[in-house]
Amino acid sequence: MGCWGLGAIGFSDIVGSGWLFGAMYAARIAGPLSLLCWLAAGALAGLVALVMVELGASRPEAGGTVRWPLYANGPLVAGVISWAVLLSVGAHAAEVTAILRYVSHWLPWLYHGARLSWAGLALAAAVTVSLGALNWFGVRLFARVNLLVSVLKLAVPTITVVLLLVSGFHPHRLTEHGGFAPYGWSAGLTALSMGGVVYSVNGFQAPVEFSGEARDPRRDMPRAVLTAIGLAVLLYVGLQLAYLCAVPEQALAHGWHGVSFDSPFGQLALLLNLHWLALLLYADAVVSPAGGAFVGVAAHARRTYALAKNRMLPHWFMQVHAGSGIPRRGLALNLAVTLLFLLPFGGWQDVVSTIGNLFLLGYATSAVAAYTLRVAGPGRVPGVRWIAPVSFVVATLFVYWSSWHRLRVTLPLALLGVPLFWWVRRHEPTAVLLREVRKGAWLPAWLLGLLACSALGAFGGTAVLPQPYDSFAVAAFSLGVFGWAVRSGRRHLAEGAATAPDGMAEFPR
Questions:
Q1: Quick one: 402 exposed, middle or buried, by C-beta within 10 A (0-12, 13-18, 19+)?
Q2: What is the pTM of this model?
């Protein structure tokens, strides 16, 4: 794949179902200040993306996000991150159900209340299998289909921005009803996590997962990732501006907090008598989540392949189909996990949304890997020596801002990777295992410390640490952990534990 194909993958994964609701929820929390939230999220995503680009360009490998921690910090860190990635496969079920939620506008029998009916489950399973089938037959077919979907996902939101601004542009909305920051400047920080802003810009790492299948990763990877982020943030800012300026005056009787729509842009189009646009928006509300899930299924197949290389899954899953270039066995495993998450267990949607945050842990460990491995060889991104620690702090804050309600489930689940690591390597000498635990001890300490900060902080916790001091404390704590992680990684490299090019020296057969 070339630059455009890789860039389309990143853009398609970023612009999923988030664009349909992010503008409304961000405005409800922060008012017009939400415009700056998108710019801040784009800048933060760019920092983390540069770390991923550094690794993807200098060490291109399918499923690199679970391979690089093995090279830099050893099997314990790689094992915990591998476990987190394996759990997060089920998050694709959320996109599939988002598709069916909008389809239920025409087919209400798909749902019984908030849950899928049996017919809805059957259709959800068919959609999941269809997404896998499109990924089954080769990288080139995947790239072509995704490029077409990306064009549609760019066209419909752009048309929405233009028509809403032309038909209902009221710039005084930005200064009335409490001013530009009606709920204070700290509300912008809350909107980053609670308003869906950070969630909406997530997905920029998808092209890096395909670095092993790029024609020229050193040249194309930085362009593809940064272009995808830039276009997506520009689109989100436009959507936010259009939403803020098109909301009817009567809807603001109780301020921005009181504005609520089931389908924000669709209902605004109907209020402005743009009925054909509303129909187009409901149709795209199916395409956008489908495009995000389509890319996610493909990226996870590469990660599952990498998990097998890390010896966290049987070696059987490492096989790549010769004709298509696809790790079909890993793809089939991911589809099975996604189908399990579609079963109507009580409250499973909350669990899926919580599991999706596990990706952020991979961003943080990739920052450590970029800094540690750069010591061993030349890198591709200037300034990575300061970008990597800043990215680690940013990723930690992203996790922290996800709120105690989510982290009290997410972080203990991730910590289960520690006993899983011990069980997988239980046949090795105890002295070897203890040495690996010492080298990777910073990761469980980081997770436990972050869990304690969340419990004491102001984002759903007890608020013993009030804003903004809680975020400052988390940033200082994460910076100290980063230094610990880099020192451990250097010791790991000095011992020669990661000299084998495929990492198999760490996992003898």
A1: buried
A2: 0.75
